[in-house]
Amino acid sequence: MNSVTVYTTTQCPYCVMLKNFLSEQNIPFNEVNVETQPEVMQRLVKTTGQMGVPQTEVNGQWIVGFDPNNIMIALRNGGKINE
């Protein structure tokens, strides 16, 4: 079973595009709005080195930005995009 978490903010158009893409592909995901949870944003920056959103965690693999291709690759490869 794939685990997909999308980290977003309220005003982010790419976050909406990413959530729409996942929904269209029937990929279940959890959404975490980092505006309402600043401690989560700090953890993201520490983990990925990136401040921007969306950031998507697929089975432990981080994908930064609106990147449907790498998300689909990570889903197919159990979280690994560098295969």
Question: What do these coordinates show?
Answer:
With 83 residues, the protein is α+β, with helices and mostly antiparallel strands. It has one domain (4-76): 3-Layer(aba) Sandwich (Glutaredoxin). 39% of the residues lie in helices and 20% in strands. The protein has helices at 13-24, 38-48, 68-76; strands spanning 4-8, 30-33, 55-58, 61-64. Strands 2-1-3-4 form a four-stranded mixed beta sheet, sandwiched between helices. It is globular. The two termini are 19 Å apart. The model has no long low-confidence stretch (mean pLDDT 93).
SSE topology sketch:
Layout: E1 4-8, H1 13-24, E2 30-33, H2 38-48, E3 55-58, E4 61-64, H3 68-76
Parallel strand pairs: 1-2
Antiparallel strand pairs: 1-3, 3-4
